[in-house]
Amino acid sequence: MPSLPGAFLRLPIAHRALHDAGAGRPENSRAAIRAAVDAGYGIEIDVQPSADGVAMVFHDDTLDRLTRESGPIRARSAEELGRIALLGGDEGIPALAEVLALVAGRVPLLVEIKDQDGAFGPNLGALEAAVADDLAGYGGPVAVMSFNPHSVAAMAEAAPDVPRGLTTMNWEIEEARALPEARRAHLSAIADFDRVGASFISHHWRDLSAAPVAALKARGVPVLCWTIRAAAQETQAREIADNITFEGYPALLPA
Fold it and tell me: Which residues span the domain enclosing 201?
């Protein structure tokens, strides 16, 4: 399996890029990406599919929270989405290919593939194929991850040379309660790590002491964490985590 490049363990990773809507840099926007590159941070972004199968850089399933439009992002074409301005900025929703061209290998780029099954199951594949196509030939440090192990397995098939990991937590948050208890327990155990050929995890920072995290760390597996929002949280997380994903404060860059 491909290893996580060392740059992902050295540079703090800006969550949804270095966003600050009050400064004209909405999350996952080109402006936030440019700011992260200029500051020398790594970047984490999210991808969702357009109606015509293009990987778009956007976190939510729907447009409602982040734009003045409403409805599912997957109901609009990539061209339409590119014209929809993100709240707090004046730029439209970017495609992954555009972001890759902006970053151009200058800092590590971590791409989270959002669940398309609806229940973290196997009903997916098209978005992973689109991401793999966009990443083909990209020369910089890049890795993909997902909360859905089936998505990570799909990436192993579509882009076997791209490092891949699991986004993990204890699955006790309110949004996860709709999942069957057995499924939540399976995901909490990080039981699919070896099956999907993962080479790292990115775990919720408040649950870094969990036994499955400790077991993987003992094996030498890189442990990233999300989402740090204060320097004190960073200090605590780094007692276990090899690196952080952060937002809302200036994480310390290595000397």
Answer: 7-47+108-246
**Does residue 151 belong to any structural domain of this protein?**
yes
CA 118/CA 126 separation, integer angstroms: 14
In a domain, 205, yes or no: yes
CATH number at residue 141: 3.20.20.190
Cα 5 to Cα 53, 72, 135, distances in angstroms: 28, 34, 15
Nearest one of 116, 121, 113 to 156, comparing CA atoms: 113
Q: Would you say 67 and 85 are in contact if contact means Cβ atoms under 8 Å apart?
A: yes
* Domain count of the fold of the chain: 1
Residue with tokens 């919720």: 204
The pair of structure tokens assigned to 97 is 């290919």
The predicted-structure confidence for 139-163, as pLDDT tens digits, reads as follows 999 999 999 999 999 999 999 999 9
Q: Which helix (H) or strand (E) holds 142?
A: strand 142-146
On whether residue 255 sits in a domain, the answer given is: no
pTM above 0.85, yes or no: yes
CB of 5 closer than 8 Å to CB of 163: yes
Phi/psi of residue 208, nearest 5 degrees: -65, -20
